[in-house]
Amino acid sequence: MAHSDTTPSRRALIAGGVGLAAVAAQSAAAADLKTPPDGASALARNGRFSGKVVLITGATSGIGRATAKAFALEGAKVMFCGRREALGTEVQAEIRAAGGEAVYRRADVRVEADVAALLAACVETFGGLDIAFNNAGIAGRAGDVGAAFDWAVHNDIMATNLEGVIRCTNHEIPAMKARGGGAIINTASVMGYVGSGPIMSYALSKAGVLSLTRSTALQVAGDNIRVNAVSPGPIDTPMMGGGAAQASGARTPAGRAGQPEEIAQAVMYLADSAASYVTGEDLRVDGGVRA
Q: Could you tell me if residue 205 is inside a domain?
């Protein structure tokens, strides 16, 4: 069968693939698996999210903070939340000082009224919602099953890390439907793939996020909403303080802990049109832990 003028030939596709491979090779050559990026240089200003409205939970520190800055620097209007008002105000000021557009609102993802008010404020302030990064999460140790298991700690972890994502997603979907579609990214973890005695409840909550991501992706694909997850490995954040990130990172094939900006870049890929055919997936950014 002859090719039409508008149909690329196999040769053209192969040539295009070679071109993409060359670009990828250049990018790979410029990067260094063993060397963490400088935070400032890891963030770009190319306007690829200009006009987009982004909602981020848990953005007063760590991964959420870096991602809020990254989206704002690339032209997005960012609404973000966290429970620590002083830090939220600080992040908002940093973004605005850098020329970005961001609004902080205190919200606890465990509280239905807080989440509803957060989404309402986002739509009222910026006119809608295009991208949501459900990142709020906590760590903790509930103890061993069959021993001194702390149900209060366990329930708090589940209410924040898993139920908080469900609660936010439940409000984000109608807002995205009103815009004709969107992208949701959930923070899972490489711990969601393995058992863990010391932090069983945390690992369980993240395994739930992975399952939730797949189920939600199936439910809303017809509404032009993509749902994916990102699973960080050991990342140098306040949550992994006291040298824990560095100690865990040293055991990865990369030989180091990851930086919050590296997770931010993965989140932006999943949010971008470059990932238009990606849904129900999990992008592990873990220095090779699960290789």
A: yes
Specify the number of domains making up the chain.
1
Q: What does the block give as tokens for 275?
A: 């990932």
Q: What is the pLDDT along the chain (291 residues), one digit of tens a residue?
A: 443 443 334 333 333 443 333 333 344 444 678 887 775 445 567 889 999 999 999 999 999 999 999 999 999 999 999 999 999 999 999 999 999 999 999 999 999 999 999 999 999 999 999 999 999 999 999 988 888 899 999 999 999 999 999 999 999 999 999 999 999 999 999 999 998 888 999 999 999 999 999 999 999 999 999 999 999 998 888 776 667 777 777 788 888 878 999 999 999 999 999 999 999 999 999 888 888
Q: Which residues contact 29 (CB under 8 A, 6 or more apart)?
A: none
The answer to the question of residue 140 being in a domain is: yes
Task: Tell me, yes or no, whether 15 lies in a domain.
Answer: no
**CB 131, CB 124: distance < 8 Å:** no
> What CATH number should be reported for the domain holding residue 225?
3.40.50.720
Q: Is 103 left (phi over 0), alpha (psi -120 to 50) or beta?
A: beta
Catalytic site residues?
202
